[in-house]
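step=encode ok
step=design start
structure_in=
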């Protein structure tokens, strides 16, 4: 939408479909992931599907709402898929071939590709965030009770800042809406809180975040979220 609330572009999914992730791409297309049809589509500026990647459907025990969350396409054309209900991150090549599936400690909501092949992963109701290196080894993690007085609830959207700090959403649903906790924080790599935000009058829960004063082009992977 434009600042004066006019629709500049749109794509409408079909019935029995949920969309929990989208990404603007360098060529002007927009990546969309669809729960239900189990697919990634790249939609052009006319709203037409220009590319489709079929995802392996989750097992029947995973309900539609829990199938997929954050999905990101990298500059080399690979896709990283948050397979929420299966507690896995999957990497696909540009043709949709599965290259690897990484088990994570929770119902993954976000996977953020970082320089050097690292991945920053928000683990949902696993109450933690982990950073994996190119060999899938944990090199940093934030655990449920690492921030005194602010236990991690459901770890949703996040952003890695140029100075190495992380801003992350501490989603307060699933019984925590009335908790007097911040909706999101900025923390340093050594787990010190820089600032926090809470407005329980206007917000129940906040799932995703992007700081708009951070320089860089998100379509060129210069902003890590």
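sequence_out=
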């Amino acid at each position: 939408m434009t600042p004066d609330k006019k629709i500049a572009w749109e794509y409408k999914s079909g019935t029995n479909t949920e969309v929990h992730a989208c990404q603007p791409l360098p060529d002007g297309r927009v990546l969309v992931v669809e729960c239900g049809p189990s697919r990634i589509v790249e939609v052009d500026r006319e709203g037409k599907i220009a590319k489709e990647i079929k995802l392996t459907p989750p097992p029947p025990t995973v309900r539609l709402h829990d199938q997929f969350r954050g999905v990101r396409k990298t500059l080399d054309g690979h896709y990283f898929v948050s397979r929420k209900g299966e507690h896995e991150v999957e990497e696909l090549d540009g043709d949709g071939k599965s290259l690897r599936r990484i088990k994570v400690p929770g119902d993954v909501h976000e996977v953020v590709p970082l320089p050097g092949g690292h991945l920053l992963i928000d683990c949902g109701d696993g109450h933690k965030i982990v950073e994996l290196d190119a060999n899938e080894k944990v090199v940093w993690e934030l655990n449920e009770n690492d921030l005194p007085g602010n236990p991690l609830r459901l770890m949703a959207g996040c952003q890695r800042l140029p100075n190495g700090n992380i801003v992350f959403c501490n989603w307060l649903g699933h019984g925590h809406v009335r908790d007097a906790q911040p909706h999101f924080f900025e923390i340093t790599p050594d787990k010190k809180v820089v600032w926090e935000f809470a407005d329980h009058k206007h917000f129940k829960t906040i799932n995703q975040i992007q700081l708009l004063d951070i320089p860089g082009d998100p379509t060129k992977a210069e902003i890590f979220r």
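step=design ok
step=annotate ok -> The two ends are 20 Å apart (CA to CA).
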